[in-house]
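Help!! Second protein's tokens look totally different from the first
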Amino acid sequence: MIVIMWEYMSHIQIETTFEKREDAEKLVDILLDNNLIACAHFCDITAVYVWEGKRYKDPQVLLKVNTQEILYHDCEKLIKKNHPDKVPHILVTQANGSKEYLSWIDGSVKQKSKN
């Protein structure tokens, strides 16, 4: 459960992983087309994990996107709808940074009322 404190946290970074880069790129296109994110970053990684009792070590693509916290639920909904995994990796981190960069994020995403 995410505890939202609007007056303290307004920007977030959402991360998810994909087996195929094409799937990550497709999701980014959807999120950008819906003005839900300002930008995305792709990183090639190796994931080691246990799934249904079996241990795996797989190459994956880590996708990180920057947005406003108020848009998280819309982003999460589209990630789940467009992700090939049964239980997609979705983590959220509060994002602090330069005032200019955070202002750019604000100008790049759709405006949504906090009320």
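Here's the second one for comparison:
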Amino acid sequence: MQNIKRKITKIIEEREKALHYKTRIVCRELECWYSGDLNAIESAYPSIKVSKLKNKAKFRNPDVLNGKDEIKKWIKPYGAIDAANSITPFMDLDRNQSNSFKQTINAIKNLLSN
């Protein structure tokens, strides 16, 4: 991953001398990001009672989960696009427990504030 990041940084620096940028490579499954906000999943799918799982050790660091496998246990039938469209409107940027999600959101906020 570091090699990819170095290559991207080199390309940017060669082309854009005065550009303010931050390189982030999103490499986690989006389902891990959804699992970082179990309340959002439950809001999107009220019949699925998963918010109670947020206190379990397994869900305190959702980036180590196999997010897609976890969500497939709850949402049947599972469709990635349908899940994205259903869950994301309920996601809370500050509540999410995924470190990958937090880093990506912080990079976007910093970029927008410059």
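Reply: Different proteins will give different token patterns, so don't panic. The mean pLDDT is 87.
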